[in-house]
Amino acid sequence: MVDRKDIGSWLSGPDTSNISKFPGERLGQPESGRGSMARAGRRILAICIDWGLSYLIAIAFFDANPTAILAIFAAEQMLLVGTLGYSVGHRIMGIEVVRLDGRQPTLLDGVVRAVLLCLVIPAIITDADHRGLHDRAIKSILIRR
């Protein structure tokens, strides 16, 4: 016979003892301020700024060709994130890309991250720490400066 003890585990809900209280806690990042995980609002505004700049450059030099816009955006992400750790939009929004080991991303990291970012879907799929697949692929996080 089934009694309350047998079904009590699913009635009480899942075990939440290992769930982080804020994004980045599992990664050793502070809850807020410098070094905390960049939230969605800053990330979205940064990508909109980068895309807008790419669009303006494409208007000026390539008659607003959609392929040119994507290529300019990808080149900006590859070069700037791969060398400086941030794009123009990241810099304006006060965020930067940092590898989990504390080092700055390499040019190869910038290329991998940009390709996945241009595919869109990897950027939309995020984990509890607000890291998209493009960040997880190069073992990086986007933090506030």
Automatic annotation (TrEMBL):
- Give yes or no: UniProt keyword Transport: no
Report the membrane topology from the UniProt record. Multi-pass membrane protein
Task: Note the Pfam families from the entry.
Answer: RDD
> Taxonomically, which superkingdom?
Bacteria
Describe the location of the RDD domain by residue ranges: 39-138
The protein's UniProt keywords, in alphabetical order, are: Cell membrane, Membrane, Transmembrane, Transmembrane helix
Q: Which InterPro entries does the UniProt entry name for this protein?
A: Pra-immunoreactive (IPR051791), RDD (IPR010432), UCP021697 (IPR016795)
Q: List the transmembrane segments.
A: 44-62, 68-86
Q: Where in the cell is it found?
A: Cell membrane
Q: What is this protein called?
A: Transporter
| Source species of the chain | Arthrobacter alpinus
